[in-house]
Specification:
The complex is a heterodimer. By secondary structure, chain A is an all-beta fold. In chain A, 0% of the residues lie in helices and 53% in strands. Chain B has strands spanning 4-7, 10-14, 19-25, 30-38, 44-51, 56-59, 62-67, 72-77, 86-94, 99-101, 105-110. At the A-B interface, strand 4, strand 5 and strand 10 of A face strand 4, strand 5, strand 9 and strand 10 of B.
Chain lengths: 117, 111
């Protein structure tokens, strides 16, 4: 398996534009996580899914952020409209949580570096 | 709410030295603890995972320990090398199945 795949790797956009980040989890994994990383706040969990269903979106900063997982192999994180303070690296991760909870090793994608100017 | 803290925030050691990175968490109801490495501008690479029933895990020059009752974990790196320079992050998986990350330790190994 190629691991967790995120696209694009880099995104530069103007304030007010819509941004869509994409993630393909590892095949067979039933948990998918979206994180945001900044120098000031470190890694923050935005939202996570279990079997394509959003479980906890309490980390989503505001209504401008939305995430979907239409099927087990694809998820999107959308920001509309984008603002300069959204500039960060956004990571997607997946894990297998069905079998033994203690062994739910999480694997991360390479991240999308978003710059909003 | 789970809070994870890592000490020190930054560390610089000469090549060949053994070192210990610390991680503490406030809620001991965890399923596992995972140590990650992050190189500048890169993603996170999983180094070791310790299940809540385990006391330690080893991989090469790395050894991670877990004391769940006291809310502590350590990552021991033996015979450090310049290639070990990176940021090391610990994360715990709680009953909600989500990972909570620590603040990270930035390690620099000098020649």
């Amino acid at each position: 398996d190629a691991g967790v795949i995120q696209s694009p790797r880099h995104e530069v956009t103007e304030m007010g534009q819509e941004v869509t980040l994409r993630c393909k989890p590892i095949s067979g994994h039933d948990y998918l996580f979206w994180y945001r990383q900044t120098m000031m706040r470190g890694l923050e969990l935005l939202i996570y899914f279990n079997n394509n269903v959003p479980i906890d979106d309490s980390g989503m900063p505001e209504d401008r952020f939305s995430a979907k997982m239409p099927n087990a192999s694809f998820s999107t994180l959308k920001i509309q409209p984008s603002e300069p303070r959204d500039s960060a690296v956004y990571f997607c991760a997946s894990s297998l949580g069905r079998v033994i909870r203690g062994n739910t090793e999480a694997f991360f994608g390479q991240g999308t570096r978003l710059t909003v100017v | 709410k789970q809070e994870v803290t890592q000490i020190p925030a930054a560390l610089s050691v000469p090549e060949g030295e053994n070192l210990v990175l610390n991680c503490s968490f406030t809620d001991s109801a965890i399923y596992n603890l995972q140590w990650f490495r992050q190189d500048p501008g890169k993603g996170l690479t999983s180094l070791l995972l310790i299940q809540s029933s385990q006391r330690e895990q080893t991989s090469g020059r790395l050894n991670a320990s877990l004391d769940k009752s006291s809310g502590r974990s350590t990552l021991y790196i033996a015979a450090s090398q310049p290639g070990d320079s990176a940021t090391y992050l610990c994360a715990v998986t709680g009953t909600a199945s989500k990972l909570t990350f620590g603040t990270g330790t930035r390690l620099q190994v000098t020649l």
